[in-house]
Amino acid sequence: MRIGLLIAAALTLMAPSPARAELVSASPSAFLVRAEAVTQATPERAWRALSQIGRWWNSAHTFSGDAGNMRLNMRAGGCFCERWANGQSVEHGRVVMAMEHEGVRTFRFIGGLGPLQASGVIGVMTFVITPDQGGAKVTMSYHAAGDASLGLDALAPVVDRVLMEQFTRLIRYSDTGSAAP
User: Fold this and answer.
1) pLDDT at residue 103 above 70?
2) What is the DSSP annotation of 78-115?
3) CB atoms within 10 A of CB 47
């Protein structure tokens, strides 16, 4: 029994650290969501996983109903887009940064996600991947701003939950090659 507990404790210590999410701030005109986790993946593998958004994003949070229709072009001017049958498409965001400097990889796009797009909300999503002992630390932030009459502070917790789900799926996909729990 005691050996079993020691093994379980050792495995817990070796597992990647759980993602931490935080609704940093929220007001009627803006909010900031931030999440951070350490993955066992190398920074290169975590970066590659990020680019394969159709493999880790939840299909329930797409316009087409199929995350396989999503693409992320990892270059400035690139598109975070979803395209499906009969020429239907959505641009979720426009890439404004994809770079590496001194081992730190930064990816950023601008776009109001989901229902925020129809409200004229501007959102800035940033992923930063840094080397970490035994893997990579991945940090995600999403800063959204718009007219105060939109009551973004009331929407912020919902956006936080949806983004945290996607972030958790990204980390899982980086670690295992599968977003499934």
Assistant:
1) yes
2) -EEEEEEGGGEEEEEEEEEEEEEETTEEEEEEE---GG
3) 20
Provide the b/e sequence for 164-177 (b: ≥16 CB within 10 Å): bebbbbbbbbbbee
CA distance 169 to 55: 9
DSSP 8-state symbol, 103: T
Cβ atoms of 137 and 130 within 8 Å: the answer is: yes
Please provide residue 36's backbone torsions phi and psi, each rounded to the nearest 5 degrees. -150, 140
Alpha-carbon distance of 1 to 44, in angstroms, equals 40
Q: What is the pLDDT of residues 17-40, one digit of tens each?
A: 456 778 999 999 999 999 999 999
How far CA 151 is from CA of 28, 29, 93, 145, in Å, comes to 4, 6, 22, 10
Whether 123 contacts 130, CB under 8 Å = no
Give dist(CA 129, CA 102) in Å, integer. 11
Q: pLDDT (tens digit, 9 = 90+) per residue, 55-68?
A: 999 999 999 999 99
Tell me, what DSSP letter sits at residue 151?
Answer: -
| Of the candidates 125, 131, 106, the residue with the CA atom closest to the CA atom of residue 167 | 125
Stated as kind and residue range, the H or E segment containing 85 is none
Sheet holding 70-72, edge to edge: 20-27, 30-39, 135-145, 122-132, 104-110, 88-101, 79-84, 70-72
